[in-house]
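From the shared-data thread, chain only:
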Amino acid sequence: MKNYNKKRLILEGIGLILGILYLSPFYIIVSNSLKSKRNILVDTMGLPTTLQFENYTTAIEKMEFYKSFINSAWITFLSLIALVLFSSMAAWILVRTKSKISTLIFMMFVASMLIPFQAVMLPLVDFFGANKLNLLNNRFGIVLMYIGFGSSMSIFLFHGFIKSIPLDLENAAYMDGCNVFQIFYHIILPLIKPISVTVAILNGIWIWNDFLLPSLVLQEKALRTIPLAAQYFFGAYSKDWHLAMAGLTLAIIPVIIFYLLAQKHIIKGVTNGAMK
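Structure, as tokens:
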């Protein structure tokens, strides 16, 4: 028992140290965002002597935060709706269709998860460019890209969850006269709610935080997402650290709030999927 308590104490100490290390960057960003420029130069690691909340109002104005927030929310929302709906449909059909072709298609989706984005970004930009699809600097264009890049992992997660749903439920619905769409909407969709929430959260955090793809596709100032706006703002105000830190804090806050509200759904969905 004593050895067990010592091991537990050591593990808790290591966890506490790691937690402090992980949280220290957030402390530096938030504390410096509330300081004056002189206060940052004098005492970077200390607490602010006076709270400079006007740093945030200046950052919101210069960063055009509200416009960037709307762009990020619009792109993320449409991408998630399409990803959850289309990926769950595709996974359901792949699970219920017992053939070599369906297995091959599923393996192709799984294999595509291993392809790095950097390997396809230049052909992608060329394909969506003005000479072909003409979908650059277009919100619908980047939504289509997110659907393509997010489908592999989403279908993989849905596929594993749907295999646990008894086929007898669907057969009973067929006997009652339901068509394919009614079966999916009234039976499958409610049953896959836990994994749907997990898929939406994981993809939502990725899409909201993504910088590389929007930087290639959304080159107009009016279409900038929050990561793009934060990058340009930080570049313009890199010497004014108090404003730059305020801009970074504004970019981080929505993700933290979203994760805190949704973390129980992530754990629940992953746990349900593992148990099934």
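The mean pLDDT is 84.
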